[in-house]
Amino acid sequence: ELISSLRSKLRMLWEERELVLSEARECAELGEELEAMVRELCKPNEFERYMMFIGDLEKVVSLLLCLSSRLARVQNAMRRIDANTDAEEKQSLNERHKLLSRQREDAKDLKENLDRRERVVSGILDKYLTDQQLQDYRRFVQLKTSLLIEQKDLEEQIKFFEEQLGSLEKSIP
C-alpha cells in the first residue's frame, strides 16, 4: 500500500514537472521576444547590460537554491547526530555547515548586487518600452525566477520520493 502510494505521488510530481517545464518553455519564448525587442530599441551597450542581467539572473537564483538545498541536507544530517556518531563525522558535518553557510551568504550578496543591476536595467528599459512592454519584462523576470524555484523544489521532491521508494522496495523480500 505504501509503495503504491509513493508511486502515485511520484506520478503526480512527474506530471507537475512536465507542466512546469512547459511553462518554462513559454517563458523562454517570451524572453526571446523581449530580447529581440530590446536589441532593436536599445543601444548596444544597454542591450549588453540587459543580456548580462538576464543570464546572471538564472545563475544566481540557481546557485542560491542549490546552496540552500545542500545546507538543509547538512542540517538534517546534523539533527541525526547522536552519541553513536563518530567525532570525525561530526567535525565533517560542522565544517560543511560552516562552508555552505558562508557560500550562501556570498550568494545572497550576489543576489543583492543582481537586484541593483535589475533596477539599472529597468531604468534603461523605461526609456524605450511602453508601459505594457515594461509590464511584460517585469512579468518575465518574476516568472523566470518563480519557475526556477518551482523546478528545483519539484526535483528535490522527486529525488526524495524516488529514494524512499527504492529503499522500501529493497526492504521487502
Automatic annotation (TrEMBL):
- Example of a GO biological process term: actin filament organization
Q: Name one GO cellular component term.
A: apical junction complex
**Source species of the chain:** Rynchops niger (Black skimmer)
InterPro entries hit by this protein: ASD2_dom, Shroom_fam
Family indicated by similarity = Belongs to the shroom family.
Q: What is this protein called?
A: SHRM1 protein
Q: Name one GO molecular function term.
A: actin filament binding
Question: What does the record list as coiled-coil region(s)?
Answer: 90-120, 144-171
Q: Which PANTHER family match?
A: APICAL PROTEIN/SHROOM-RELATED, PROTEIN SHROOM1
Cytoplasm keyword on record: yes
Indicate whether Coiled coil appears among the record's keywords. yes
User: Which parts of the sequence belong to the ASD2 domain?
Assistant: 1-173
